């Protein structure tokens, strides 16, 4: 704030100089001197004319005319009172109030229309940035209030505006995005930090954590690779295994999730209060794994082409599982690119069409296979197809595509 006052005072002084400069350069009594010089010149010229006129006999009372000329010269001299008034009217009486008025009016207009309070708040936040940054680094933003988050974001953006090569600043901004579940901000900021310092383990971890929030499978795969690279370091942060375990659990890879949680238990020891929580997570994953194995059902289908079939390389293979009564609405379906035949595919509950009707709920079923040539599943004209007989849920299915829709 001190810089504002100094800068504003300097501007006022410069304006005052421009106001004072014309008055300081003005010569005192300049008008009176010019008038006196002009009157003297006029008086001398008139005396010369009277002398010539007298020699020529044109003037009779030369002395009277000279006296009148002297009187005219005396009448043109300003009176003492007028000179005193002119001397008393000092330019400072105008200049000083003008400068004061300019200063008061300038500050008053800024106080009304300016943003002094906002600027002061911004400067206070910038000065408080180191303390807020330290708090965020220690607690991962868990104890920061909403206002502190806003202040920290403002301060960091100001700092990064003037120093865009600050990798730590970008990492902190990314952590704020993580705390606010702002995927765009967190991924963008962490990527900038990673581009600046790709070997920094804290930045690698933060970038992976941000990418885990993305809905893009490619981003999540990059995050997994970063985390797996971190597991090969001499020192591994426990959060690396926590993220890997969470990701594996979300992907229903319960075996990997159990392995990572077990590693975390070894790192913290049984006396840590988190040990029991990890035990419960492992037990839950084991239950999920045993339940999915017990209830999991799948249908393995082997597909052959009939001799009369002309294979369109742009066609798509559609495999659908139906109720044993041949209902046209499939229970499960999947689409595959055309490749070499015979071809074996496997469908399970992940291919179910409805949550309320799963493949594992069937006791018996039939399978239909079709080569869709136009990319529209609703049209069948000219498509080749085949279907199986009714089989049990655990029986393999063999189908030959040898029929064509008219």
Largest β-sheet summary: 6 strands, antiparallel
Give the class from helix and strand content and strand pairing. alpha+beta
- Under the CATH scheme, which architecture of the largest domain would be assigned? Alpha Horseshoe
Strand content: 5-15%
Number of helices: 15
Helix content estimate: 55-70%
Say what oligomer this is. Answer: single chain
Question: Radius of gyration over alpha carbons?
Answer: 48 Å
CATH class of the largest domain: Mainly Alpha
Low-pLDDT windows of residues: none
Structure description:
Helices cover 59% and strands 12% of the residues. It is of the alpha+beta class. The protein has three domains: 112 residues, no CATH class; 170 residues, Serine Threonine Protein Phosphatase 5, Tetratricopeptide repeat (Alpha Horseshoe); 107 residues, Immunoglobulin-like, CATH 2.60.40. Strand 2 and strand 3 form a beta hairpin.
In short:
The protein is of the alpha+beta class and 406 residues long. Helices cover 59% and strands 12% of the residues. The chain crosses the membrane at residues 6-24, 89-110.
């Amino acid at each position: 704030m001190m810089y504002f006052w100094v800068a504003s005072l300097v501007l006022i002084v410069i304006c005052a100089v421009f106001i004072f400069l014309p008055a300081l350069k003005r010569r005192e009594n300049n008008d009176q001197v010019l008038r006196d010089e002009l009157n003297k010149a006029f008086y001398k010229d008139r005396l010369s004319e009277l002398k010539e006129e007298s020699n020529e006999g044109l003037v009779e009372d030369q002395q009277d005319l000279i006296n009148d000329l002297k009187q005219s010269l005396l009448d043109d001299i300003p009176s003492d009172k007028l000179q005193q008034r002119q001397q008393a009217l000092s330019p400072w009486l105008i200049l000083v109030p003008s400068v004061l008025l300019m200063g008061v009016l300038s500050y008053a207009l800024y106080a009304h229309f300016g943003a002094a309070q906002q600027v002061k708040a911004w400067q206070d936040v910038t000065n408080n940035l180191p303390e807020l940054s330290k708090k965020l680094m220690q607690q991962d933003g868990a104890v920061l209030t909403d206002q502190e988050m806003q202040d920290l974001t403002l301060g960091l953006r100001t700092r990064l505006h003037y120093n865009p090569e600050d990798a730590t600043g970008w990492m902190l901004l990314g952590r704020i995005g993580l705390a606010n579940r702002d995927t765009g901000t967190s991924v963008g900021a962490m990527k900038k930090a990673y581009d600046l310092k790709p070997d920094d383990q804290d930045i690698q971890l933060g970038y992976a954590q941000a990418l885990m929030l993305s809905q893009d499978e490619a981003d999540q795969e990059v995050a997994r690779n970063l985390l797996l690279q971190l597991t090969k370091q001499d020192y591994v942060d426990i959060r690396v295994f926590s993220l890997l375990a969470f990701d594996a659990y979300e992907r229903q890879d319960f075996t990997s999730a159990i392995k990572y949680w077990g590693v975390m238990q070894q790192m913290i020891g049984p006396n840590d209060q988190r040990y029991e929580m990890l035990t419960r997570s492992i037990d839950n994953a084991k239950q999920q794994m045993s339940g999915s194995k017990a209830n999991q059902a799948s249908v393995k289908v082997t597909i052959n082409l009939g001799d009369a079939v002309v294979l369109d390389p742009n066609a798509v293979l559609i495999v659908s599982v139906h109720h044993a009564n041949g209902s046209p609405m499939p229970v499960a379906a999947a689409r595959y690119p055309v490749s070499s035949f015979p071809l074996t595919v496997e469908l399970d509950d992940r291919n179910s069409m409805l949550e309320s009707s799963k493949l594992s709920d069937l006791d018996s079923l039939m399978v239909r296979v079709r080569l869709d040539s136009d990319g529209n599943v609703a049209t069948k004209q000219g498509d080749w197809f085949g279907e199986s007989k009714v089989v049990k849920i655990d029986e393999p299915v063999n189908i030959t595509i040898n029929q064509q829709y008219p």
